[in-house]
Hints:
2 domains; 11 strands; N-terminal domain of TfIIb; binds S-adenosylmethionine; alpha/beta; about 250 residues; Rossmann fold
Amino acid sequence: MNDNFNLYGKYYDLLYCNKNYLAESSYIDTCIRSNLPNAHTILEFGSGTGGHGLILQNSGYDIYGLERSEQMVNEAKLRGYPCEQADITEFSIDRKFDVVVSLFHVISYVNSNSSLEKVFRNASGCLNSGGLFIFDVWYSPAVYYQKPETRIKRVENNEIEVVRIAEPEFRTSENIVNVNYTILVKEKETGNWIEFRENHPMRHFSIPEIGLLATTKGFTIITVEEFLTGNQPSEHTWGVNFILKKNE
Ligand SMILES: C[S@@+](CC[C@H](N)C(=O)[O-])C[C@H]1O[C@@H](n2cnc3c(N)ncnc32)[C@H](O)[C@@H]1O
């Protein structure tokens, strides 16, 4: 199974320690409650280390995660999140859910049309009639307008210091930006550094592109808005949230 979070996954929670999972999960809860008030069961695609899932579970949802990276699954299970290692383009599960969520750009990791079709078909297959598919993606107008640049992020805890360099490379004809990460990790006790690289190819989407996928797989788009704020998407909106309803 392709796993571009293999090494990175070990440092994921530290790299995103300032991400507001509580506010984001509350936003997702509102998206669900306002469109399907009696929803109780959630399947999470690309559940990572369970950041959103654990909070949604504590809010009363019966939630289960599918995640490709073994490292991320292990971290999530240690935190008590029910999940398994699976690729969202090909898996089988013998349950239906009220909602499928896929958060923090997971769908942007699905690069090809054929894989996207599989993911949307799988989401539909796992949902009860009238169920919701909620996901956020990179938004093409913002990518073209803002043009991602090289970025450096530094984080640390008592044991390690991590420096992450993200260098974007445009694959314009494919709507993909390759984010080439170089990760440097210093073990504070020994002063030793290790270095490794990972490539994260991210696809960005327009609204009509998602509309076409949704329609062909039996969904209707009911909401498109900036993730978290609910604002109307513009060239300043990096992450756009889609709420799709499975046709009855
Ligand atoms: C940016 S992380 C988000 C993780 C988590 N949803 C969160 O918000 O912290 C993207 C995740 O998607 C997972 N992923 C990407 N493609 C996948 C696939 N085809 N099947 C399952 N998981 C996938 C990656 O392994 C990674 O954990």
